Amino acid sequence: MTEQHQLCLALSALLLCHYLGDFCLTTKSMIRAKSNGKEYFPILLHAGVHAMLMALALALFGVSFQGCAVAFLIEMGSHFIIDTAKSKLSIMYEVLRDNTHKPYWMVYGFDQLLHILVVVAIIGLCL
After folding, report:
1. What's the CA gap between 73 and 63, in Å, rounded?
2. What does the CA dihedral 53, 55, 61, 62 come to, rounded to 10 degrees?
3. 3-32, pLDDT tens digit by residue?
4. Whole-structure pTM over 0.90, yes or no?
């Protein structure tokens, strides 16, 4: 397998991890915490799920334990910060809580863009 193929496969795997973490493995308490902006522990657990999935995927690509640990910390910290910031913005601006308005989707899309940029940065750092 060429290096380009490995990078594309790794990117696909980490994006799948992001999908699983954000849409399949998110619990009701995590969703509630992200919507009320007051409960930090469930958001931290949500970020931990993301970080664990990413570290496991990177290990499958032969990334060292130290590399996986660094990726884990970067993913957990950045995911927590991004989701908490989005939650706080949604509390401050009611229009960001209503998915029938364009600003909701703009912030949602920006949130996802930030997460994907972190994934790309981690791939650049670890592979």
Report:
1. 15
2. -150
3. 999 999 999 999 999 999 999 999 999 999
4. yes
- Which DSSP string do the residues of 28-61 spell out, in sequence order? HHHHHHHHHS--HHHHHHHHHHHHHHHHHHHHHT
Burial label, 15 (beta-carbon count in 10 A; 0-12, 13-18, 19+)? middle
Q: What's the mean pLDDT when you consider all of the chain? A: 96
The rounded distance, in Å, linking the Cα atoms of 91 and 38 is: 10
Q: Tokens 């957990």 identify what position?
A: 76
Which helix (H) or strand (E) segment holds residue 91: the answer is helix 65-92
DSSP state of 22: I
Q: What is the pLDDT of residue 37?
A: 82
Tens-digit pLDDT profile for residues 55-67: 999 999 999 999 9
Closest CA to 65 of 55, 76, 53, 75: 55
Q: Please tell me the total number of residues recorded for the chain in this structure.
A: 127
CA atoms within 13 A on the CB side of 93: 11
